[in-house]
Hints:
Order of helices and strands: EHEHEHHEEHHHEEEEEEHEEEEHE
CATH topology: Jelly Rolls
Radius of gyration: 20 Å
Oligomer: single chain
Mean pLDDT: 90
Distance between the termini: 6 Å
Bound molecules: the ligand C=C1C[C@]23C[C@@]1(O)CC[C@H]2[C@@]12CC[C@H](O)[C@@](C)(C(=O)O1)[C@H]2[C@@H]3C(=O)O, 2-oxoglutaric acid, fe (ii) ion
Amino acid sequence: MVVASATTIRNERMRAVGVPVIDLSRKRSQVMELILKACEDYGFFKVINHGVPKDVVARMEEEGFHFFAKPASEKQKAGPPSPFGYGSKNIGFNGDMGEVEYLLLHSNPLSISQASNAISTDPTKFSCAVNEYIEAVRDLACEILDLIAEVLRIPDKSALSSLIRDVDSDSLLRLNHYPPPGSGIDCHDCNSSLPRHQNRVGFGEHTDPQILTLLRSNEVEGLQISLGGEVWVPVPPDPTSFCINVGDALQAMTNGRFVSVRHRAMANSFKSRLSMIFFGAPPLHAWISPLSEMVTPQKPRLYRPFTWAEYKKVTYSLRLGATRLDFFRTTTPSPSDDDDEEQDTASA
Ligand SMILES: C=C1C[C@]23C[C@@]1(O)CC[C@H]2[C@@]12CC[C@H](O)[C@@](C)(C(=O)O1)[C@H]2[C@@H]3C(=O)O
Ligand SMILES: O=C(O)CCC(=O)C(=O)O
Ligand SMILES: [Fe+2]
């Protein structure tokens, strides 16, 4: 008899029906339940009818394409990343590389205004587009976090969103540009037998360290989410939707009930891909700790309290693909921690 675990069944479901798509215009109670299930099962979902104005997205996208179309010497004036600024191929400071160029910005308006001078010949226009975009996606992030707090029955309904709304929030905006092969920054030293355009990793596998990530891309495919092992699910591109994923900090706050999903981006297209990613983060001094409602005798505390500053320090000392949350566990993880509580199910 072949026995399939609950995780295997979930993975099969994801492969068969694709990633969950949640219509935010549906009844609040339904939306809450759908978000809960998606965060528990995959740590990932898409939202439609999200309320982020089209023109705000279009202005940000236009600024992004305009910047990446500049000659390398112009773009380099906004780099190297410190971690903020323009980067090409090098991701972080520990040797990670990908077929990507990017702009990483702090969400603080003062920092945006300073960075804009090196990014654009019209810094005011650029910073306005960025500020408007951040404001709109932050509102969406907060709306989703409020729904999460409510469905998890956390008494303070803004316990999660207030971390991102805080003026000292460490939230970031990242623009990733994956140029097609032959456009100047593609891989010239691949030994693979696959054609160059099919095997180029743009942004290697990782989890996002923050609370919640909101990603919007143009119509070009590339994003993939992990179902564990070598199983990767491509996320069909949809410029009208936002991809939402749970970050490490939310996994810790939910005491492991929500999963910070591993994902990556391939640069395997003939077209340029542009993704615009908001990482909702708490202030540096904020404490991240499993919420008391998430800790019970049956589900003892999995993570020790840590400040966001401490978590960032560890993050930046490690490679992109590291499972950094493990350093904050109260106990050594056992193999069964990756599965859920449901009974194994006989499938044949
Ligand atoms: C290799 C690295 C780049 C990164 C910092 C790190 O040391 C490990 C995590 C990376 C990541 C992934 C998600 C986001 O894109 C990012 C901004 C973040 O917060 O963590 C990047 C970091 C980066 O590119 O600076
Ligand atoms: O560009 C993408 O689609 C994904 C990149 C990503 O996951 C990241 O920057 O953290
Ligand atoms: Fe990511």
